[in-house]
């Protein structure tokens, strides 16, 4: 996904603070937090190939977003939404085991049962 496309996604969701700066990575998550798609920035940032992440839970990259933490009652967990909104720092883990603290933006794109969460990761 190119920078212009990421800017378009961010501008359509002006309520979320999704400042566009490089390096960036964008992931599409389903309602259970599994990775449905990701851009090339994810590979550069985390060291995984695209195919290695498909159908994996986002907690592989962001352990604090455990299976029961991201989604609650078919919606983004209100506490997690708050943490994203205030710019709370999360710990991200690369394939080689090293960690970093990214800035995250989570946007709800769809309806239950379909891929609906766009997660934008900016290397902090």
Which class in CATH terms?
Alpha Beta
Number of strands: 8
CATH architecture: 2-Layer Sandwich
Kindly name the structural category.
alpha+beta
Q: Give the topology string: H per helix, E per strand.
A: HEEHHEEHEEEE
Count of DSSP helices? 4
| Fourth-tier CATH superfamily name | PAS domain
Calculate the mean pLDDT score and round it: 81
The largest sheet has its strands arranged as 2-1-8-7
Major sheet description: 4 strands, antiparallel
Helix content, binned percent:
10-25%
Unreliable parts: 9-21
Rg estimate, integer Å: 13 Å
CATH fold title = Beta-Lactamase
* Ends apart, CA distance between termini: 20 Å
Itemize the secondary structure elements and their pairings.
Elements: H1 3-12, E1 24-29, E2 35-38, H2 40-46, H3 50-53, E3 71-72, E4 75-76, H4 78-85, E5 92-93, E6 99-100, E7 103-108, E8 117-122
Antiparallel strand pairs: 1-2, 1-8, 3-4, 5-6, 7-8
Report on the structure:
There is one protein chain. The protein is α+β, with helices and mostly antiparallel strands. The chain has a single domain (3-122), classed as PAS domain (Beta-Lactamase, 2-Layer Sandwich), CATH 3.30.450. Helix content is 23%, strand content 24%. The chain has helices at residues 3-12, 40-46, 50-53, 78-85, and strands at 24-29, 35-38, 71-72, 75-76, 92-93, 99-100, 103-108, 117-122. It has a 4-stranded antiparallel sheet with strand order 2-1-8-7.
Summarize this, please?
The protein is an alpha+beta fold and 124 residues long. It is 23% helix and 24% strand.
């Amino acid at each position: 996904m190119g920078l212009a496309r990421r800017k378009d996604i961010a501008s359509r969701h002006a309520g979320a603070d999704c400042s566009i700066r490089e390096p960036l990575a964008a992931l599409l998550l389903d309602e259970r937090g599994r990775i449905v798609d990701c851009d090339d920035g994810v590979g550069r940032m985390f060291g995984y190939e695209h195919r290695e992440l498909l159908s994996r839970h986002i907690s592989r990259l962001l352990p604090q977003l455990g299976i029961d933490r991201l989604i609650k009652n078919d919606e983004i967990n209100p506490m997690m939404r708050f943490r994203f909104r205030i710019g709370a720092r999360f710990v991200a883990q690369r394939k080689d085991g090293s960690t970093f603290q990214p800035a995250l933006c989570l946007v709800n794109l769809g309806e239950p049962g379909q891929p609906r969460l766009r997660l934008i990761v900016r290397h902090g």
